[in-house]
Amino acid sequence: MVVPLTIISAYGLVKVFEVLKIYAVYVLRVSCLVLLFSLIVWEFLRYEHMYWVHMAKEYPYSSQYGVKELVDYIKNDSNEYDSIIVTDRYDQPYILFLFYLQYPPQEFQKDHTLTARDGYGFSTVREFSNYKFESVKFEEMRKNNPNSLIIGTDSEIPEDVIIVKDIYGSNGFRYFKVVRN
Hints:
By secondary structure, this protein is α/β, with parallel strands linked by helices. It has five helices and seven strands, in the order ααβααβββαβββ. The longest helix is centred in the first third of the chain and has 57 residues, at 2-58. Keywords: Membrane, Transmembrane, Transmembrane helix.
């Protein structure tokens, strides 16, 4: 029983090699394409995983979450304050403020302050209307800016002050502390 099975298996193996010899180039091309496609799909899924899962945990501030909620909180009361000082710790928040406030471009172009150009020729908006965007030095700002709203991060606003509003992201990260001065 073993001998006929071995002969049939050997004959089948010889036939497989003959077919592979005929179609070797085709099989090699298809294998390479399947491998390449699999690699592309794998890398895309890895990118999506890194973007949606890891980035939110490792760099929570990079998503700019919290600015919309912050603007919604302060826009109705903004005229009550001489100045609203917002941290620039999370890049350039003025762009998102302009967007969420629906601030008229004509007004913005007349009334804003820019920094000096850097080595690459770029400058940043430091203020428009009664909004100021700068690094928060809390004790100094508290003395120099009466009747203001100071908005900073955990590291910029001390814990022992009266915080009127905390802005949290969906990931539980506290983005902003709002303090009335």
